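pinging the channel bc i need a second pair of eyes. not urgent but kinda urgent?? the chain im working w is below, pasted from the shared doc
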Amino acid sequence: MGTNGSTMLKPLRQGLPPLDPAAVSDAASCGLPARYEAVREARRFTRDTLDRWDVGDRFDDICLVVSELVTNALRHAVPAAPCRGDAHRPPVRLHLMRWSERLVCGVRDPSHETPVPRDSDDFSAESGRGLFLVESFADSWGWHPLAGTAEGKIVWAMFRLPTAG
């Protein structure tokens, strides 16, 4: 980590980490509505899912990062009024994927805007430290636009998991 708050966080524009999708041992996802209660729903979904998976001491880190990513998606990426015809489709979707030694949480949203970390030096601010927390608690993070006809992007965070034995 760098020492200067303005250079510490660098938004990443890249695909998911180099993990074989065929080797996923567990995966779960849920759609989230465009309201702030969705953060609580995402935390509950994450806790329930992680209770079934062996993530060791990363449990709290993962739950915190999911909360921050979902909050950011709702605050910065979801339009105030949903587009006609999209009312049946949740604007935000949370994905959790576990490999034997890694876990990735991804939050899909309808925006094409690059996630931009704010300067983390202002700790008196009421908000704006979400990506700083993601950077602090995840082993890596990034984002990428959705391919094909899908609209939006996925912001992801990866966690190394303890190995058995």
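so Residues 25-79+88-160 form a domain with the Heat Shock Protein 90 fold (CATH 3.30.565.10). and The beta strands are 26-32, 92-98, 102-109, 140-145, 153-160. — does that match what u expected or am i reading it wrong
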